Amino acid sequence: QVQVVESGGGLVQPGGSLRLSCAVSGSIFNIYTMAWYRQAPGKERELVATVTSGNSTNYKDSVKGRFTISRDNAKNTVYLQMNSLKPEDTAVYYCNMGQTSSGNYYPTVYWGQGTQVTVSS
Length: 121
Prior knowledge:
Elements lengths: L2 E5 L2 E3 L5 E8 L7 E7 L6 E6 L5 E3 L7 E6 L4 E6 L8 E11 L2 E8 L3 E5 L2
Parallel strand pairs: 2-11
Antiparallel strand pairs: 1-3, 3-8, 4-5, 4-9, 5-6, 7-8, 9-10, 9-11
């Protein structure tokens, strides 16, 4: 059984920072592309960032230069460092395992429970 657990969310002021963690168990972590999604109230879930097994990264345009995705294969963990946070970053953030093909990310059914990020003054 694959388990995906996110942590690190919370309330932060605009311009502040948070570091999200996603710990994976029950799978061969190294072979997957890992992704962070987010879902704001009343909005569809959107892809925020991906990191491949070879450590190639990709980001949604609105977070480029502010967010950094990374992975620690020894710990089966992926991180999302979020700096210069804006109110529009407020959402539930989800971790997913998948694969990258022809420049596109394809998610699997393996999702975490989500962690709430609220950016407000």
